[in-house]
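Q: Structure tokens for this one, please.
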Amino acid sequence: WLIGKAKPSSSEDVDNRTGGSQEPYHPTLGIYGRCTRISHMQLSRRDTLCGPYAENFNEIASGFWQATAIFLAVGIMILCAVAFVSVFTMCVQSIMKKSIFNVCGLLQGIAGLFLILGLMLYPAGWGCQKAISYCGPYASAYKLGDCSLGWAFYTAIGGTILTFICAVFSAQAEIATSSDKVQEEIEEGKNLICLL
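A: Here is the predicted structure, written as tokens:
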């Protein structure tokens, strides 16, 4: 999620093929994972090691990042439930007298709110000690210091936007399937109905 300030290669990090030193690298830090260069592995092509820095939930660097992880997990679980329920839309059109499209759209909207909460809390954790070690002493809540945002944060924002777009499509699906023209087609015995 965060791309740390450039770390210079040490004097041991010399490229044996060219004799010159390697480029500085940028370590990365996520909510519970990180990537860093391992100096004793320079002879192999895989000199960057990625993995979790937190062995359990309590070791996540910031309370804000713990909350972010919870909100994102709840939002994703709701979206998985919506995906599971949507498979049954071919057989069931209502749940407790409510349209399945409206139920799915409502759940997608709720999941989107959880995702937004997680994304809003994430920058509040930039002042934690782990983030400061990656981003420099000027890093604090909502201030990146010497770091930049990585692709994971932008992907999460894109996924949140798509969640709300899907909720709007669910409402449009309800409108399309409840129209008089569709009901007439169903009464005529047609199973596959396409309206433009």
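A few notes: The first strand starts at residue 2 and ends at 3. The first helix runs from residue 63 to 87.
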